Amino acid sequence: MEVERVQALSSLGLMELPEKFIRPVNERPESSKAVEGVTVPVVSLSQPQEVVVKEVSVAAAEWGFFLITDHGIPAALIQRLKEVGEMFFMLPQQEKESNANDPTVGKFEGYGTKMTKNHEEKLEWIDYFFHVMHPLSKVHHEFWPQNPPSYREVTEEYNKEMLRITDVVLQLLSEGLGLEEGKGLKSSLGEEEIELEMKINMYPPCPQPELALGVEAHTDMSAITILVPNEVAGLQVSKDNQWVAVDYLPNALFIHIGDQIEVLSNGKYKSVLHRSLVNKEKTRMSWAVFCVPPHETMIGPIPKLVGDHNLPKFSTKTYAEYRHRKFNKLPQ
Ligand code: OGA
Ligand code: NI
User: Fold this and answer.
1) Quick check: is 225 in a domain?
2) How far, CA to CA in Å, does 46 sit from each of 49, 51, 167, 168, 173?
3) For a substitution probing ligand 1, which of 113, 201, 228 has the most ligand atoms within 8 Å of its CB?
4) Which ligand is closest to the CA of 219, given by its number?
5) pLDDT in tens, 124-160
6) Which residue, judged by its Cα, is nearest atom 6 of ligand 1?
7) Percent of residues, the chain, with pLDDT higher than 70
């Protein structure tokens, strides 16, 4: 299937943004500016455990978003992850196309560009690469970039760190909910191994960034999302109905609480509404790791967290069902 890539469009050096990317007025960055003087929470993992639990649970409840530092992932590994991703997107167009996905036939993994479902929907200024990273039984290495050749080794090493950080974050969030050892969020996310998905987001320079969005406002359907961006800022998170710009902090992990943790915690932790803006001169990139439950896991409010004075706010269903509804914009 022939798809117009945003990166190829960007390289034409257009002066005006094509109409299909122009957002409705209320969504445009120029008419929904971020507030000034507000910054997102940053939590250092080098503090005493009880301080970290407190800071993480307050941030998850009030923002659904926070940065973590002192997480122990070598800066050099994050650097290599970025390099192999950048190298893939620098390949000739034809070579990238050999990795193309095709969501219209259910092939979600690979190189992609979002297409509109109907004439009302506007396009996002982004190309991406998406693939399953863990567990091995669900990984298709043939869908991963074959070039650069070190892509696989670097990504597998990063995967190990993501598994460790997922455990750390889920444990902190569980302690913040007062859940007992062994009965925490991780056990509620299923008996089988949690799944990790890698999405490399690539936002090329945009002729009129004030009229466009890289990713429109959304919440992630994951349990949590662990993202590292390049140095070009652009992510915004919604707090109390206002957009807050997230500054770049080298080597910090950007943690998003996703829909599944909001449901399990019965709304105590918020799934953060977020969007990304694009840049006139610079290419923005980000590496998002979505931690999702095994697809047949039933997800609903944890029984211990509901009671007569705290009724369940969400229905219980499999993650697969949740995903199907979200993709098709059906009510949950
Ligand atoms: C996403 C996302 C934001 C960013 O991929 O779900 O929200 O900063 N990305 O690129
Ligand atoms: Ni997102």
Assistant:
1) yes
2) 8, 10, 16, 13, 17
3) 201
4) 2
5) 999 999 999 999 999 999 999 999 999 999 999 999 9
6) 220
7) 98
What is the band of 114 on the pLDDT scale with cuts at 50, 70, 90? Answer: confident
Q: Residue 13 corresponds to which tokens in the numbers above?
A: 């050096």
- DSSP alpha helices (H): ranges in 36-131? 49-62, 75-90, 93-97
**Would you give the distance in Å from CA 245 to the centre of its chain?**
16
Confidence at residue 317, expressed as pLDDT on a 0 to 100 scale: 98
Q: What is the pLDDT confidence band of residue 1, given thresholds at 50, 70 and 90?
A: low
Using the atom order of ligand 1, give the atom closest to the CA of residue 214: 10
| pLDDT tops 70 at residue 117 | no
**CA pair distance 311, 299, nearest whole angstrom:** 16
Let me know if residue 165 belongs to a domain: yes
Residue 149 Cα to ligand 2 middle (Å)? 28
Question: Domain of 250?
Answer: 21-327
Number of domains comprising the chain: 1
For residue 199, the ligand closest to its alpha carbon is: 1
The answer, yes or no, to whether residue 2 has pLDDT greater than 80, is no
Q: 323 CA to middle of ligand 2, Å?
A: 14
CA 308 to chain centre: 35
- Is 37 contained in some domain? yes
Q: Supply the pLDDT for residue 93.
A: 95
Whether residue 89 is contained in a domain is answered as yes
Domain of 252: which CATH number?
A: 2.60.120.330
C-alpha distances (whole Å) from 26 to each of 79, 103, 126, 264 are 37, 29, 20, 32
| Residue (of 223, 218, 206, 200) closest to 285 by Cα position | 200
pLDDT for res 3: 87
Crossing angle of helices 151-176 and 49-62, in 10° steps, is 90
178 Cβ contact partners less than 8 Å away, ≥ 6 residues apart: none
